[in-house]
Amino acid sequence: MDTLDSLDARILLALDDDPDASILALSRALKISRNTVHARLQRLSRSTLLGFSQRVPPQAMGYHLVAFVSLAVSQTVEGASEQLQDIPEVVEIHNTTGPADLLVKVVATDTDELHRITKSILAIDGVERSNTAISLSQSMPNRTRALLERAATS
Known about the structure:
Blueprint: H1 6-17, H2 23-30, H3 34-47, E1 65-73, H4 77-84, E2 90-95, E3 102-108, H5 111-122, E4 127-134, H6 145-152
Antiparallel strand pairs: 1-3, 1-4, 2-3
Helix pairs in contact: 1-6, 2-3
């Protein structure tokens, strides 16, 4: 993954403000050549930007319940991570320090489905124990705009 420079950040902020902006509109707004905007966007698409599926919230597909499952794993974390990726409702996996080896973000339609998902997680070879916390509400969504704004001025 490439590190963004201030021009990359300015282009991304302009697209955040107007996702449908054309390359010409971006070049005029930022006072840079169309070729520069085009080349930068091509590079960012290949190396940095997340896929369109990352922009679709699980709630739009009926997954209104979010839970975080802490896992203690007896064998290799990589093996458990690979098996967790076979569960569609697992949307993030983080290797962690502390009493848990993995922190897994899970989405579900309801608590019955969450129970089914956690049972399938516990059935994975090497998973010794789990601890599940259900999110009651999201106080702040994932954000990077403030970081882009900082990068744009550096």
